[in-house]
Amino acid sequence: MSSSTLVAADHAYTSTKARIVSGELAGGTLLSEAQVGAELGVSRTPVHEAFLRLADEQLLELIPRRGAVVRPITPTEAADVLAMRRGIENASAEQVFTRGGVDADLRQRLAASLERQQTLVGSGDAGAFAEADDEFHALMIEASANPIARHFYAQLSGRQQRLRNVWLRIDPDNLAAAHADHEQLAAHLIGGDRSAFTSVLAAHFDKYQGAL
């Protein structure tokens, strides 16, 4: 595959994934390689490669001679993603507590993330808040200094962002609720309160589970 085709395939992948994750392309939407290629100004070959990558991430289901369908988020998938996130984030927090806490640089970055979230709560921008939400949880995992935890969290990126975008749009008050949870999580992580952190994190994920 030529370098230009690789670049086009990456563009098709990034663009289509963003539309799926944001909810613009809802579950059940039928996509054709020709249609997506025309929209992006590329041939079908790079779009086909992009579809293969998205199918591997279980965001698309390939249909021979027709294209692909955006996979709906099932209750089982939502539960599985949240269970994995709960395990990764609790394990990461435990490493932070064991190692002696959060350093000054990360404290500042967590504070900046919370401030940005507060601004987005005021504006009601659910899409931007979903990005800030992801950044916040990624920072908590980064605090563990565990590259394996960061790797597995990144592997869940597309699926968990889909869940966030759905949940945050169900009720405008969910933005404020998520921000309030994040404030508590940051305080307990920095303060070294294992029990409180675990309790708030469980309640945070239960809100997703109950709504989805």
Automatic annotation (TrEMBL):
Signal peptide: none annotated. SMART domains: FCD, HTH_GNTR. The keyword Membrane does not apply. The keyword Coiled coil does not apply. SUPFAM superfamilies: GntR ligand-binding domain-like, Winged helix' DNA-binding domain. One of its GO terms (molecular function) is DNA binding. Residues 6-73 form the HTH gntR-type domain. It comes from the Bacteria. Pfam families: FCD, GntR. CDD domains: WHTH_GntR. Keywords: DNA-binding, Transcription, Transcription regulation. This is GntR domain protein.
